[in-house]
Structure formats: structure tokens, C-alpha cells
Amino acid sequence: MKFAILTMFNGLDSTYSLVNVVAEQIRMMLEDDMKPIMLVTEHCPLDSRQGIFLDERIEWRQVVNQVDGKQIHWRDYTQATGTVHDTFFKEADVIADDIVEKLEDVDACIMHDIHYQGWHLIHNVAVRKAQKRLPDLRFIAFTHSAPVNRPPKTEWPLSARFTPMPNTTYVYPTQSGIPALAKQYNVPEGNCRAVNNSLDILSFMSDEVKAVANEMDILSPDILVVYPGRLTTGKKFEKVAALSGAIKKNCEKSVKVIFCDFPSADIKPEKYKSLIRSVGLSSGLEQKDIFFTSDIEEYKHGFPRKAVLELFSLSNLFICPSFSESFGLTVLEAASKGNFLVLNERVPALEEVGKNLHAYFMRWDARNFGFNSHEKYHPSEKAYLKEHAEIVTNMVRGNPVIHAKTMARQRYSPQWIWYNQLKPMLSS
Q1: Hey, is 42 helix, strand or coil?
Q2: Where do the Glycosyl transferase family domain residues begin and end (predicted)?
Q3: Which of 138, 179, 248, 398 has the lowest CB atom count within 10 Å?
Q4: CA distance 237 to 257
């Protein structure tokens, strides 16, 4: 199937917010192995393309914007009654003929503000003329501003801004605007859909974080755990895997764990990583839920601290069961990025810092001043993890700041918007 995006852009400056929305939709299609067709005016300077618009998989088709050798100057017709300029219909016919040629091999076409904006009235009418000659072509008409009140009286062609077009679904960024959208275009609410704007948070991340994202889905999990440290048994990586597994197994949450590790002389890295994975899998995680940044060749000796902080901005749960800490700087780093903290209460430094940060405490083996403590769980460690997994999950879910952070990453990601809202309309 072929899909097109009709914008009638005169330029691709990213300071125009709609350009960013379209760029996001283009990226969604490309990441799903679709090759979009982009329709802009013939005066749009393609040599000024930047970012995703440079992708060679995009097919550019420029729509005519002149008649008899003279450029068509758009006029803003926001009123519902009155007259249009003398050459309006001649210009609309020329544009319509070109749109038919540009869309005749397309299955579905997304339009942005073509039916809404007054200065696009000429394109609005041209598309309607083209649609009559392309009856099988499905249109998805986005409106990006607040719908206007439907006037009591309208006159053609100014009424095009308030008239439904056959085989067209009308779209607004939020569900709350659907009733007003339906009234503007005089269509049933069932012919309207909400497609939220997305936040492509990964586009603002470093190459290091993007490299991790290429290896593991870090946007969609309900619980994302990041644990940095030297790959030594004293850091108790396997306890992080165990609690994470208990959360997934007992709380019906999707969980991913990223270990930002660097080698230690205490134990062979592959031997310890094998143990950590084994504990994670036996506790409820799957192989795909665990990732070590050292598995990326470039970062086998360590992952940049700045990139760790970026990962903390995506994660929502920090677990530190470390056997010994003199302070625990990673706790502060995780807290500064809005993570729920679960710390080893038996380590004095973690207890001190954790109390200041209102952390949640659990008991693991620890080194204290002058002695070591060893925990015994009744009836079992498995039962202990289950109990605290449920408490932690409820506290994470009930924290409004962490909930908002998680939803922004998860629910409003381009992937979620594409697979749950936009793609189903294109494919139906």
C-alpha cells in the first residue's frame, strides 16, 4: 500500500510546529518500513531539507502553484459567506488536476490543516474536486487548532471549511475536541478520531543512549530499571534482577533492566553476567528484559556517565542492594532524574542518604562499621521479594510525578501513537 502526506508546505523550517508533527509522522512510517510520499508546493525549496526529511526513502512530489506562468497567491478566507477572487476556481481546477496526477497511485492520504485553515481554502476545494475523480482514495484530515463554531449560514466555496468530504476521517489531537470537530465539519463523531501529538524523547538523547535503544525497547516498559556500577559481586547485581523479576511475575508489569557495567578484577565478567541473567530468569524476567551496556563493543570497558544520567531520565525505578557504600552517589543521580528509590537499609550510608530522599528500604546482606550483617527471610526470600515487589509497584503507580514521567515516555511515544492510533486508520 502507498501512503501520502499532503501539507502544501512552502518551506520546511522546524520553527513551524506543524513541520515537526509531519516529521514525526514521516519517521513513524519509515521505522515501520513504509516509504511515504510527501506532497508540498512546487515552491518548497527541497535543497533546504534537514533531519528526517533527508531520508532517501521519502518520495517528494511537488504540487503546482502557478497558473498561466504566474504564481498563485493564497488568500485567507476565514469567513463563511461572501465571494472569492476572480481566478479562484481556475486556480483550484489547475491544482486539482495536479493532485489527481500526484495521488492516483496512492491508497490513503493524510492532510494537515487543509480543510481547516482559511488560507488553504483553494487547496480544500481542489482536494474535493480531486476526490471525486479518486473515489477509492481514503483521506485522513488533521485539524491542529481549536475547531471553530459552525456558522448558521454558509456559502460555497467558503462553506468548504464546514463541509464533510466523502471517504474522509477527521482527526484532532485530543479526544476532548472530537465533539467540536464533528460539529465544525458536520460529520458524526464516529467519523472522527483522536491522534495525539507524540514526544520523540530519544531524538534528544545521545548516541550512547540511542545505541542501547537499538538493542532493547526502553520506551514501552511499565518499569524501567537502570543500575550502574562496577561488575563486582559486592554491587549485588543479581538482587536487582531478582526484585525486578518479582515485580514482573507478581504485579503484571512489563519490566526492563539496564546494567551500565564495567569490568572488575574480582570476577570474570561473563561468569557474573551469566549468574545475573540466571537469577533474573528464575525470578520472572525474560532474556530480552536484561541488558548489559558492556555487551556493546564500544562500551565494554564502561558506559559514559553522562549517558547514564540520560538513562536515569527515562527510568522510573532505582534499586540499590549494594553490600557496601561509602556514600552512594548513584542514588543522588537517580533521584535527581525522578526515580523511585529502593535502597539497602543495612548499609549505613544508603540509610542516611535514603532517609533524606524519602527512599523505600529493603534488607539485603551488608557491611556495617566493624561487622557484616546477613539477612534471613521468613518464610523465604522469594516470599520477601513478592511482598515488597507489590508494595513498590503500588507506590510507583501512586506517585503522580513518576506516573507522569512514565506516561510521557510510554503512552506518548511515537511508537505508541503509530501502532495504536495512526497506523490502524491508514490500514483499515
Answers
A1: coil
A2: 222-354
A3: 398
A4: 10
Domain ranges of the chain: 3-199+416-427, 202-410
**Whole-number Å distance between alpha carbons of 341 and 86:** 69
What is the amino acid identity at position 185?
A: Y
What per-residue confidence (pLDDT) applies to 253?
97
**Helix segments in 168-216, DSSP class H:** 178-185, 207-215
Q: Give CA–CA dist 369/140, Å, rounded.
A: 67
Instruction: Say whether pLDDT at 392 is over 90.
Output: yes
Of 134, 118, 138, 62, nearest to 95 by C-alpha is 62
Residue 57 burial (C-beta neighbours within 10 Å; 0-12, 13-18, 19+) = exposed
Fold of 202-410: Rossmann fold (3.40.50)
- 146, 180 contact by CB (below 8 A): yes
User: CB-based contacts of 108: which residues, under 8 Å, 6+ apart?
Assistant: 1, 3, 4, 137, 138, 139, 140, 425, 426
Whether 14 shows a pLDDT value over 90: the answer reads no
Residue 63, classified by CB atoms within 10 Å of its CB into exposed (0-12), middle (13-18) or buried (19+), is buried
| Residues 408, 314 contacting (CB under 8 angstroms) | no
Q: Which CATH architecture has domain 3-199+416-427?
A: 3-Layer(aba) Sandwich (3.40)
Question: Is 292 strand, coil or helix?
Answer: strand
What is the C-alpha separation between 152 and 81, in angstroms, rounded? 10
